[in-house]
UniProtKB/TrEMBL annotation:
One Gene Ontology term, aspect cellular component: membrane
Signal peptide annotation: 1-23
InterPro entries in alphabetical order: Malectin-like_Carb-bd_dom
Transmembrane segments: none
Protein name: Malectin-like domain-containing protein
Membrane topology label: Single-pass membrane protein
Organism encoding this protein: Musa acuminata subsp. malaccensis (Wild banana)
Protein keywords: Signal
Malectin-like domain ranges (all copies): 39-367
Top-level taxon in the UniProt lineage: Eukaryota
KW Signal (keyword) present: yes
Compartments, as annotated in UniProt: Membrane
Main location class: membrane
Length: 483
C-alpha cells in the first residue's frame, strides 16, 4: 500500500469512481441482456453500431467501445465476393504498438466465460501476405500463437476461463511476423459449475470439439445456449446411431451438452474398441485435457450390456473403472489432470463381458493455459484501466502495463469541468512526486507540461506500482470517502 507522506493518488482516483459508473452503464448498452458480447472488429466507426446476424440471431456490435487503438479495414473486394458473414468483412489491425488489448469491463469475478477470437485475412492490407503470425494473450497469460496462412479461411481460437477481477483483456501481441489483426471477438458468460477443471489458475484452450454422430453443418447457438461449436467427425470405420427420444441432462451437469449433440453417437463396426485421434492441429500440445460425453441411445435387453474402459493417451480415466452410459441421460468422463503423450489417442475398449461395443456421443479436447500471475497483476491492470478511464490515455497503455519493454504514456484529463476535478498541473505534479519518490528519477527528467511522458524500461515500470495499487484499492470498493 501507499507509504508516501503525500497521499498523492487520492484526487485522481475520486474522479475515477465517477467515471467507472458511466462505463458500466455504457457497457450495458452493448450486450444483449444475457451477457453475451459479440464484437465485429472494425464494424463501423460509430461506437453504437450493431446488427443482428441472420443465421444465428445474435447481435454483433462495433468493437470501438472496447479498444482505442488500431486501424479499421475492409477485406479486399475480391475476397468479399464469396458469401461471408458480416463479421468477416472488416478487420481491426495493429500496425503500431507491440501489444494492443481489448478490455471488457464489469465482468463477474469467479464466473466462467467462453471467449472466442476469429481471424480472416482477406488481403485487407493489399499485401497478399502468405503468412501472418502473432500471439494472443488473455490478461497477462499467453493464450495461443495464431498463424494465418490462407487469405480465405477463418481461423478461430477459444478459451474457457474464470474471471478473477471485473476486467478481462484480450491482447494481440506483435512478434515480428506480420501485423496482428482480428475479425471478431466473442464473449459469453457460462455457469460457475461448468467445466470443473477450469479455475483461476487454469483456463482451457479448445483444440477440438466433435458431435460424433453429426452429419451436416456444425451445431452452435441457438441449439447450444453456450454457443460452443460442435463439428461433425468424419471416420468411415464408425457407424452412426441416433434416437428421436430426448436425452436428459443430469441435475449436477458440468457440461450442459445440447440435446441435438447427445442424441446421436458412433459405435465401431465389428470391433470391441474405438480409437480416435481428435486433434485438429497436431503438434504443439504437450499437455491436454479431454471431456467425453456419453449416453446410451437404445434400450438394452436383459441379456445385453455395454461396458468399456476409457483411455486417454494410455491413461485410464473414470478412476480406472469400467464405464456404462445411462439410457437417455448424458454423462461425461473427463480428465482432471493433464495427460501428456506423443500421440493423442482416445481409446474406448469394451470389457470382456460386455456384449455391446463402446459408444461415443461427443468429445472435446483442450490444452491448458497456465495462469501463473493471477492476483497481483490483475490489480495492476485494474489500476491501469482506471487511470486510462480518467485521463484518456491514448497510447498503448492497455492490458498488462509491464509486458511491453517500453511504455509510452500520455495523460490528458478527459473529465468535463467540475469543482472536484484537479487541474492537470496538480495531477502532473502528483504523478511526478510519486515517480520521483518511487523511482529515484530526478524530477527535472520528467517533462513539465499538460502532458506527462514517461519512457521507462520494464523493470522501472514496477517501481511506480505503489501509485497503481493505491488506485486499485480505492476503485475496488472503499470509495474516496473511506479515506
Ligand atoms: C468499407 O466498405 C464500406 C461499404 O461496403 C464503405 O462504406 C467503407 O467506406 C469502406 N471502408 C474503407 C475503410 O474502405
Ligand atoms: C497481389 O495479387 C494480385 C493478384 O493475385 C496481383 O495483381 C497484385 O499485384 C499482388 N500485389 C502484391 C502487392 O503483390
Ligand atoms: C446454466 O445456464 C443455462 C443456460 O445459460 C441456464 O438456463 C441455467 O439456468 C444455468 N444454470 C445455473 C445453475 O446457473
Ligand atoms: C485449480 O485447480 C487445480 C487442480 O485442478 C489446483 O491444483 C489449483 O490449486 C486450483 N487453483 C485455484 C486458484 O483454485
Ligand atoms: C438376447 O436375447 C435375445 C432374445 O431375447 C436374442 O435374440 C439375442 O440373440 C440375445 N443376445 C445375446 C447377445 O445373447
Amino acid at each position: 500500500m501507499l507509504k508516501s507522506s503525500r497521499n498523492m493518488a487520492v484526487i485522481p482516483c475520486s474522479i475515477l469512481l465517477l467515471f467507472s459508473v458511466v462505463a458500466v452503464q455504457v457497457g450495458g448498452l452493448f450486450t444483449d441482456g444475457l451477457g453475451f458480447i459479440y464484437l465485429d472488429c472494425g464494424y463501423g466507426r460509430d461506437a453504437q453500431a450493431y446488427y443482428v446476424d441472420q443465421s444465428s440471431g445474435i447481435t454483433y456490435v462495433s468493437d470501438a467501445p472496447y479498444i482505442d487503438s488500431g486501424e479499421i479495414h475492409n477485406i479486399s473486394s475480391v475476397d468479399a465476393l464469396v458469401k461471408l458473414p458480416q463479421r468477416f468483412l472488416t478487420v481491426r489491425s495493429f500496425p503500431s504498438g507491440a501489444r494492443n488489448c481489448y478490455t471488457f469491463k464489469s465482468m463477474t469475478p469467479r464466473l466462467k466465460y467462453l471467449i472466442r477470437a476469429s481471424f480472416l485475412y482477406g488481403n485487407y492490407d493489399s499485401k497478399n501476405s502468405s503468412s501472418v503470425q502473432f500471439d494472443l494473450h488473455l490478461d497477462v497469460n499467453f493464450w495461443k500463437t495464431m498463424t494465418v496462412t490462407s487469405r480465405k479461411v477463418s481461423y478461430y481460437t477459444e478459451t474457457i476461463m474464470e474471471a478473477t477481477t471485473d476486467l478481462i483483456s484480450v491482447c494481440l501481441v506483435n512478434t515480428g511476423r506480420g501485423t496482428p489483426f482480428i475479425s471478431s471477438l466473442q464473449l459469453r458468460p457460462l455457469n460457475r459449475t461448468i467445466y470443473p477443471v477450469v479455475n483461476a489458475s487454469l483456463s482451457l484452450i479448445l483444440s477440438s470439439r466433435f458431435d460424433m454422430g453429426l452429419t451436416g453443418e456444425p451445431v452452435r447457438f441457438p441449439s447450444d445456449p453456450h454457443d460452443r461449436i460442435w463439428n461433425p467427425y468424419a471416420d468411415t470405420s464408425l457407424t452412426k446411431t441416433s434416437t428421436n427420444l430426448p436425452v436428459e441432462n443430469p441435475v449436477d451437469d458440468h457440461f450442459e451438452v445440447p440435446l441435438v449433440v447427445m442424441n446421436t453417437a458412433v459405435v465401431p463396426v465389428n470391433s470391441n474398441k474405438m480409437e480416435l485421434s481428435l486433434l485438429t492441429e497436431p503438434g504443439d500440445l504437450d499437455e491436454y485435457y479431454a471431456v467425453l460425453h456419453f449416453s446410451e441411445l437404445k434400450p438394452l435387453l436383459q441379456n445385453e450390456s455395454r461396458q468399456f474402459f476409457v483411455y486417454l493417451g494410455g491413461t485410464l480415466l473414470n478412476d480406472a473403472k469400467p464405464f456404462t452410459p445411462d439410457y437417455l441421460s448424458s454423462s461425461a468422463v473427463y480428465s482432471t489432470n493433464p495427460t501428456s503423450a506423443p500421440t493423442h489417442y482416445i481409446s474406448l475398449v469394451a470389457t470382456s463381458d460386455s456384449t455391446l461395443p463402446p459408444i461415443l456421443n461427443a468429445a472435446e479436447v483442450f490444452s491448458a493455459m497456465q495462469n501463473t500471475i493471477v492476483p497481483s497483476d490483475s490489480r495492476n491492470v485494474d489500476a491501469m484501466v482506471a487511470i486510462k478511464g480518467t485521463y484518456a490515455v491514448k497510447r498503448n497503455w492497455m492490458g498488462d502495463p509491464c509486458m511491453p519493454k517500453i511504455a509510452y504514456v500520455a495523460l490528458n484529463c478527459a473529465m468535463q469541468s467540475s469543482t472536484k476535478r484537479p487541474t492537470m498541473t496538480e495531477v502532473v505534479m502528483q504523478l511526478k512526486e510519486s515517480l520521483a519518490l518511487q523511482s529515484n528519477l530526478d524530477e527535472t527528467q520528467l517533462e513539465d507540461r499538460n502532458t506527462l511522458k514517461l519512457l521507462k524500461e520494464h523493470g522501472e515500470m514496477h517501481q511506480i506500482s505503489t501509485f497503481e495499487f493505491e488506485c486499485a484499492s480505492i476503485s475496488d470498493k472503499d470509495g474516496p470517502s473511506a479515506r
